[in-house]
């Protein structure tokens, strides 16, 4: 009885050992970059690319790892993911007193409502989300994360910006007033240009954001170098 059992086991092992094995297993994902000690996968880059395409109204990206230009196509998305990771690491580790996070719910919902207005019906919007691989909650989560990152960037770079009074006055005189006058001439509005003091704070904020945008690229270059961002071919 025991002998027959052992023979059966040996026969079964022989079948397993000598059966042909499929050595060409399909690779479903791979690492395309690392940043702040975390890996960025091919799949996550595709998701990010399609998120940006959805926001900008571009076509959904259909790409696979075998495409010769896959990484080149995904490089902007990979770079964005790397930047997000290094900024989040800095936010978590830097000895800065980050201001208390304001309630971002209404702002995120506003971003979502603005996106909805690009579609004729709620059904069309829902179908588009499915096509791009998202749900509304997934969109909210990504928008909320972006808001947190943007607030930290603003908090980090704003102290480096100083807008002289002369620059505000020049913007008012050379850009704002001519724009309003051009609108009046086109018959789109009969309103006279506001006084400078009425729009001073708004102009200052516009100029501050311009300067922050100028500082952002070199700031990110330093962060990538310091936080060990690596891209893989």
Give a topology summary:
Blueprint: H1 2-18, E1 31-35, E2 38-41, H2 42-56, H3 70-93, H4 105-116, H5 122-132, H6 136-157, H7 165-185, H8 196-226, E3 230-231
Report helical residue fraction. Answer: 55-70%
Approximate strand percentage: under 5%
Q: Tell me the span between the first and last alpha carbons.
A: 59 Å
Q: Uncertain runs with pLDDT below 50, 5 residues or more?
A: 1-25
Which CATH class? Mainly Alpha
Please identify, by name, the CATH architecture: Orthogonal Bundle
What's the structural domain tally?
1
Largest β-sheet summary: 3 strands, antiparallel
Element string (H = helix, E = strand): HEEHHHHHHHE
Specify Rg, calculated over alpha carbons: 27 Å
The global form is: globular
Widest β-sheet, arrangement of strands: 2-1-3
Mean pLDDT: 84
| Backbone structural class | mainly alpha
Query: Under CATH, the topology is which?
Result: Triger factor/SurA peptide-binding fold
Number of strands: 3
Number of helices: 8
């Amino acid at each position: 009885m025991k002998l027959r059992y052992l023979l059966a086991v040996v026969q079964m092992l022989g079948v397993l050992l000598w059966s042909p094995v499929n050595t060409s297993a399909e690779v479903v994902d791979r690492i395309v970059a690392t940043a702040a000690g975390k890996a960025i996968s091919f799949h996550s880059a595709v998701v990010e690319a399609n998120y940006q395409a959805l926001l900008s109204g571009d076509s959904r990206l259909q790409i696979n790892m075998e495409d010769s230009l896959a990484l080149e196509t995904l490089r902007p998305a990979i770079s964005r993911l790397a930047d997000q990771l290094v900024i989040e690491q800095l936010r978590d580790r830097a000895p800065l007193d980050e201001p208390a996070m304001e309630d971002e719910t209404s702002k995120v919902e506003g971003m979502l409502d603005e996106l909805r207005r690009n579609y004729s019906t709620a059904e069309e919007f829902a179908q588009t989300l499915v096509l791009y691989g998202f749900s509304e909650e997934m969109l909210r989560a990504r928008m909320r994360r972006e808001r947190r990152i943007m607030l930290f960037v603003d908090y980090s770079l704003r102290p480096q910006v100083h807008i002289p009074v002369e620059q505000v006055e020049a913007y008012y005189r050379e850009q704002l007033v001519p724009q309003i006058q051009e609108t009046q001439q086109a018959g789109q509005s009969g309103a006279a240009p506001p006084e400078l003091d009425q729009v001073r704070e708004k102009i200052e904020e516009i100029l501050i954001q311009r300067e922050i945008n100028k500082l952002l690229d070199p700031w990110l270059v330093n962060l990538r170098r310091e936080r060990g961002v690596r891209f893989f071919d």
